[in-house]
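hey m, so remember when u said the tokens were messed up on ur end? i reran from scratch. heres the input so u can diff it against urs
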Amino acid sequence: MQKTLKIGNYQLSNSRPLAFMAGTCVIESEKHYLATAQKLKQILAKTKHPFILKASFDKANRPSVDAYRGPGLTKGLAILARAKALTKLPVLVDVHEPWQAEEAAQVADILQIPAFLCRQTDLLLACADTGKAVNVKKGQFLAPQAMEQVIKKIESRGNHKILLTERGASFGYGDLVVDMRSLEIMKQFGYPVIFDATHSVQRPGALGTRTGGNRALAPILAKAATALGIAGVFFEAHPTPEKALSDGPNSLDFALVTKMVGELCKIDEVVKKFK
């Protein structure tokens, strides 16, 4: 049985209209983030599909010690709160340590567990204890079947507000591939399944001090994932990806966002047979 998860005014399920989760990789500045959020809302409002705003206050796993990480928890959450008030959208934010969960939950509707941390028990339990929805990105090193144990950790705290996200699997050194079987396997757990289109086309550490990627492939993979009947697509966007402070090579510009979401909505309508 496929569960339905209520987020704000939206209902997310593998059998309901496709939801979108999007934003910049990291908060670069308040002005930049608010402008990007408003532009994405304008684009996605035309689809009439659910839209959840994504944000990161800290990118704790950058390749280089000199890489930009973000404004930090306190300032980042303040910016996110202003974005939420301005756009009237539910928001998702990633947390890296258990002590961050309760504070992030004061603003966020969804707490996200980064892929590298998907088996960190204390982090999962801390997020579950907030009562907020928890989106777990499947580790690049993890088989989809193994996500059952991740689910059980969150459920052990009485929290059944769970989303599972596919974001590619490690393929040798510095590359990722997407096994579309993973989406179907995770759907069998009954919770909404999300496909992360832009992180799936990363090339981790490929640029030495930075992560590489190929944004042109993101819409292709997103279309394949949508055709399987999933709850949503996650992606990162930036007004000028070549100038992005993090994950520029795999971030989408607004023109590509507009084209991609339009195509995904058409596929979703056919697959789920909406009128």
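this time it looks ok to me. The longest strand covers residues 19-23. if urs says something different then somethings off w ur setup not the seq
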